[in-house]
Amino acid sequence: MVSNTERLKRFNSRFSQNSNVLVVINADPDAIASALAVKRLLWRKVNRLEITYFNEITRPDNLAMIHLVEPKMTRLKDIDPAQFDRFVVVDSQPDHNEVFERFQYDVIIDHHPVSSNNSGYSDIRPDCGACSTIMVDYLKAARINPSSRLAAALLLGIKTDTADFTRQAGLKDVKAFQYLYKFASINLVTKVERAVVTEKDLDFIAGAIKSRTVAKGRLFSHAGRVENCDEIVIAADFFLGVAGVNWSIVSGIFNKNLIIVLRNDGLRKSAGKAAAEAFGKFGSAGGHKTMARAEIAMDVVKKQVGSSSKDAVASWIVSRVDKKAGKKTD
Fold this sequence. Notes:
This protein is an alpha/beta fold. 40% of the residues lie in helices and 20% in strands. It is built from twelve helices and twelve strands. Strand 2, helix 3 and strand 3 (74-75) form a beta-alpha-beta unit.
């Protein structure tokens, strides 16, 4: 077993004082916090470090976290990658999104199941509920006490990705949370957590409620075309709180792709496995035991369904999930 000290040594070996580092993320609380931890680890050890993201950030909690914790993050479209010679990805892997595949990474740190190979340094630990948990090990190994702002960000990363320790959480996450709590600004944590939904989100959820179908404890809702993917995630999380619902499957079409978000109560078959089995051969699909996502080009969906109508796509999703999500986890 590799020690945290050895991991830190391997991490540091990828950089020099002349390195210009670009940390690429799909911005959410865990990814933002993990990127900030990388920034702290490399403070005064590299020539330049920038954090960049490519997704459209619309969720109120994500916006609040950026505003309060790391307002200097830059959109990828405003970055010139040619100015950088070292690339890092945290809370994701190169094949999780086609944007990630643009770069050859010197460092990958993630808590999702291993899904790709890379020639650089990789630290992938699926037994951790959050990437922020992994980053705490690096800070400890480097003997760095996190600032109140960084500790708050990492604490939020753990809370968010484990849904307050109700999914994918383990003892490592609990211990990391306890460690961070000593340093974190709880006022900052509270401010971010109170920014939950907007009125626009409520309108989306209202529409999703009207189009829902429920059978055998599975709630489905297909929204048709959506303005952003975050609304799908918010609705999927919301529906899992409905009494008698143990699977929540919400979908929508965004940028010519069908996005399907799956949630379950953790007592049934793994959502990640169900997503991969139901949709993996059509596009990217996978995730954790209680949460998963699939993304399929609409051209592929049309070939399978024979139509792009809202009802036809919704029925296809139901039929695919019904075939794969019925068994309990052994």
